[in-house]
Write a structure and sequence with these properties.
single chain; about 270 residues; alpha/beta; 7-stranded parallel sheet; two-stranded parallel ribbon; 10 helices; 9 strands; globular
Length: about 270
């Protein structure tokens, strides 16, 4: 129903709504946010169909900078609450280019108070900090800002400062994307350092279905790139170790995403 575009970096395995629903039920979750993957580019049809099927769902889209306001309004009605800038999957870009993309996305986000979600390498956090503070909308960093566990460098300090500003959020998700071992105990203090900066601006994500672009990069598009082999229950249970305080975990899992994704007026 949703053919993959000819120009893509890899071919993922299928991830259907029914499988997502099973995963959510196993984790006892009633709400979900679907993020547009890189291989579909600006064609959000598959993601929007998933939102419609699931019901109590929201989405983060990828659209062209010249998208008309009327189309943005339609996307909002369909459950979109943010726009994604994916730099890390494509291998990186100059900071000025990233800034231009963020600025253009923020302009599109402003009417409906969406956020700009960024998947960028850790070394770009500090150079982007001044721009992010000046944006008219909030920003969200994917996957711990890709800060490697065990580091206390300028990237972490810059991200903590952005969290303290109250305009930036961090998604603590995809621990396997910041180190070889997702159970690395050094992720614990990293998570706590981010939460201590501002527990009101942290959200959790499963990163299901765990697509692995690296496995498919440089290979023929006829080959399906298998996803990372991730135990979703284990991923979820890591949060209890990272954040022992149950009240803060509730913020991360319930209260914070309700505000960020506009679930506050929904039934659950």
């Amino acid at each position: 129903r949703f053919p993959l575009p000819a120009k893509r970096r890899y071919t993922p395995s299928d991830a259907v709504v029914g499988d997502l629903a099973v995963m959510l039920k196993k984790l006892d979750m009633t709400r979900v946010v679907i993020v547009q993957p890189s291989f579909y580019g600006t064609d959000n049809a598959c993601m929007l169909d998933g939102i419609a099927q699931l019901g109590n769902a929201r989405g983060v889209a990828v659209i062209a900078p010249d998208t008309p306001e009327k189309e943005v309004d339609i996307l909002h009605d369909q459950g979109i609450r943010g726009l994604r800038i994916n730099i890390a999957t494509t291998g990186g870009e100059p900071v000025d280019s990233i800034k231009s993309k963020i600025t253009a996305a923020a302009k599109l986000c402003e009417k409906h108070r969406w956020h700009v979600q960024m998947f960028v390498d850790a070394e770009t956090i500090a150079p982007l900090a001044s721009l992010l503070r000046s944006l008219p909308v909030d920003s969200v960093f994917d996957h711990f800002g890709l800060i490697a566990p065990g580091t206390t460098n300028g990237a972490l300090r810059a991200l903590q400062g952005l969290l303290e500003s109250g305009k930036t959020w961090v998604k603590i998700s995809g621990a396997y994307r910041i180190g070889n071992d997702p159970n690395d105990k050094r992720i614990d203090p990293l998570t706590r350092a981010l939460c201590q900066a501002n527990p009101q601006r942290i959200v959790w994500g499963s990163d299901w279905p765990h697509p692995n672009s690296d496995a498919g990069r440089g290979r023929p598009l006829t080959e399906i790139s298998a996803p990372f082999a991730i135990d979703d229950g284990l991923v979820f249970n890591q949060l209890g170790r990272w954040i022992p305080d149950a009240a803060i975990r509730k913020k991360i899992l319930v209260d914070n995403p309700a505000r960020l994704y506009g679930f506050e007026n929904s039934a659950s």
